[in-house]
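User: Could you go from structure to sequence for me? I need the amino acid at each position, not a summary. Structure tokens:
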């Protein structure tokens, strides 16, 4: 049925809770629970003229999932050509070409493509690991670029985010807890006031391995909310009810 939209070694996966289909391949970095959590964490935007930007978009997962809860336009930015092309075809697969566009660009080169101070919300799943000489990197370039700051640093991500956002616009990130302080410092340095933090734990007796952070451009200091923790799996390895609902919808 979809053979004409798939290339070799590609498949179509589905987020059953939203009916969104997404083109994936074992040869490149596929979306993970991080993308689902980030799309759920970000606010719903009902204004039809709102503008949302998805930085470090990968194969488009976050923007695709977010499309179900926003009424405005979504612009996705992805530097890797193959991933951007997969995102473009997933947009067509879901008939979302009037709502989502993909830019195959370095996010540091968005001048003239997205106006400064024009965006209502930014979402981003940045590379988690610093690009150190001692870092062990995956030999697969798609995995390495997605996971390590090879093409972009956290500081660059947050600088660009601040430049894009309107005053009062919201930034939403999913990141590693061990770099949370660094992220918060960079947000405040770039006039984004941290306002909401939520930790995600693989199991109830394990340390957090994911953190979700929301900030407001030019917001006042203070007033940070710490949301209830999210537990991904039960002791028996099955997803908790919260995650089951995110992945498969209510009543599954």
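Assistant: Here is the amino acid at each position, in order:
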């Amino acid at each position: 049925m979809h053979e004409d939209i798939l290339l070799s070694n590609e498949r179509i996966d589905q987020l059953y809770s939203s009916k969104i289909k997404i083109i994936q391949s074992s040869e490149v970095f596929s979306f993970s629970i991080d993308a689902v959590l980030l799309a759920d964490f970000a606010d719903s935007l009902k204004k039809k003229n709102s503008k949302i930007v998805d930085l470090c978009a990968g194969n488009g997962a976050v923007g695709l999932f977010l499309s179900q809860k926003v009424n405005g336009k979504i612009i996705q930015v992805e530097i890797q050509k193959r991933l951007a092309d997969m995102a473009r075809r997933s947009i067509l697969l879901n008939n979302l070409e009037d709502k989502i566009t993909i830019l195959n660009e370095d996010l540091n080169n968005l001048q003239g493509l997205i106006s400064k101070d024009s965006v209502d919300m930014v979402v981003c799943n940045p590379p988690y690991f610093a690009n150190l000489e001692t870092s062990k990197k995956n030999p697969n370039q798609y995995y390495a670029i997605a996971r390590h700051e090879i093409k972009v640093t956290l500081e660059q991500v947050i600088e660009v985010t601040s430049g894009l956002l309107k005053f009062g616009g919201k930034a939403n990130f999913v990141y590693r807890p061990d770099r949370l302080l660094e992220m918060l410092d960079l947000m405040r340095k770039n006039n984004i006031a941290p306002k909401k933090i939520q930790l995600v734990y693989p199991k109830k007796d394990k340390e957090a391995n994911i953190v979700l952070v929301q900030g407001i451009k030019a917001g006042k200091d203070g007033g940070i909310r710490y949301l209830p923790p999210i537990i991904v799996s039960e002791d028996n390895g099955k997803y908790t009810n919260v995650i089951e609902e995110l992945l498969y919808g209510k009543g599954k």
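One structural detail worth keeping in mind: The radius of gyration is 17 Å.
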